[in-house]
Amino acid sequence: MDWIKSLEKFLGEHENLLNTLIILLTFIVLRSIIFILVHRQIKEIKRQYHWRKAVSYLLSLITLFLIGRIWFQGFQSVITFLGIFSAGLAIALQDMLVNIAAWFFILWRRPFEVGDRIEINHQKGDVIDRRLFMFTVLEIGNWVNAEQSTGRIIHFPNGIIFKNSLANYSKGFTYIWNEIPVMITFESDWEKAKQILVQIANTKVERLSAKAEKSIQKAARRFMIYYHNLTPIVYTTVADSGVVLTIRYLCEPKTRRNSEEILWEEILRQFKQHKDIDFAYPTTRIYRDNLEGKNPKNE
Fold first, then answer.
1. Best CA proximity match to 59, nearest among 105, 24, 100, 103
2. Residue 291 belongs to some domain of the structure
3. pLDDT of 122-152, one tens digit each?
4. What is the C-alpha to C-alpha distance for residues 22 and 20, in angstroms, rounded to an integer?
5. Overall pTM > 0.90
6. For residues 217-240, b (16+ Cβ closer than 10 Å) or e, as one string?
7. Contact at 8 Å (CB) between 156 and 150?
8. Which long-range contacts (CB under 8 A, 24 or more apart) does 22-25 make?
9. Beta-bridge partners for 179
10. Could you tell me if residue 241 is inside a domain?
């Protein structure tokens, strides 16, 4: 029949397009089935995410290779095909090529993982996704104190890691040093206040030091990190309005605000019991010789 002949002619003329559509459809169906199986077999969200990413990357590479073999039948070598493909991208899509190269760099060198807290280009956040052209973070800080989440999602092109320095809170040494300045008046018993702060710090955060010591020993195998004292310490300085006692201690990056709350609540409770310790704040003092027992100036 005429319509059968017409269909055969159409399929013959558009065989490559038809095979491409079949491969794409197979890719979509196969990926959906694997995603369903992963969701049923793996309950942990983080493992589900890594499995979905691994499956997507593998199937995408296979699909790209098969489609390339269809449209470039004269090039049987995978290396030849990828070389031509890369050369085309280098000419037409330079920015996208940089992002792809950065993606390979991220997978190879692993400057950060999903779940890490990082800072790049003066923006901080927790990494929640990595893709071929970009990675995504959940913003922290900005107008929110103590580096807690703002709720905003920021998308960075992968190529930004080649242009800006990257700070990783979670890679290597997984703790950060945090400081809490406590200012008391000059008239307060600063030595007693310092003893109280040392006791509070040792009681509330000493348990982190044992874990931090193991973490730093592990990090020292890869990075040149040396800390001789991992226990909390209180430093004494003088400011315009009083004596500043600064508590310095180790904490996990994502528990910074909680640790500060615990310490401050205990500080308020302890200082309340001592009348010879008062918090300081900026004040203005009026000085008069005759009222403060000073000798009158010679006329």
1. 24
2. no
3. 999 999 999 888 999 999 988 887 778 888 9
4. 5
5. no
6. eebeeeeeeeeeebbbebeeeeee
7. no
8. 23/63, 23/66, 23/67, 23/70, 24/63, 24/67
9. 248
10. yes
If you average pLDDT over residues 209-215, what whole number do you get?
67
Consecutive H or E run containing 124 = strand 123-130
Cα 13 to Cα 9: distance, rounded to the nearest angstrom: 6
Say whether pLDDT at 29 is over 60. Answer: yes
Cβ–Cβ < 8 Å for 176, 119:
no
- The number of distinct structural domains making up the chain is 3
What is the extent of the structural domain holding 12?
2-92
Residue 144 in any domain: the answer is yes
The answer to whether 271 and 196 have CB atoms below 8 angstroms apart is yes
Q: Which two tokens mark 196?
A: 């109280």
Domain finish residue from 130, 150, 168: 168
Mean pLDDT: which of 67-76, 156-165, 213-222 is highest?
Answer: 156-165
Alpha carbons 78 and 59: distance in angstroms, whole number? 16
Residue with tokens 């600064």: 246
State whether 64 and 85 are in the same domain: yes
Amino acid at the residue 31:
R
- Same domain assignment for residues 183 and 162: no
298 lies in a domain? no
Helices (H), the chain: 2-13, 15-41, 45-71, 78-92, 94-109, 190-220, 256-272
Q: Verify that 246 and 214 share a domain, yes or no.
A: yes
Amino acid at residue number 109: R
Coil, strand or helix at 269 = helix
Residue 293 pLDDT > 60: no
Residues counted in the chain:
299
Q: What is the DSSP string of 30-91?
A: HHHHHHHHHHHH---HHHHHHHHHHHHHHHHHHHHHHHHHHH-TT---HHHHHHHHHHHHHH
Please check whether residue 161 is in contact with residue 168, taking contact to mean a CB–CB distance below 8 angstroms: no
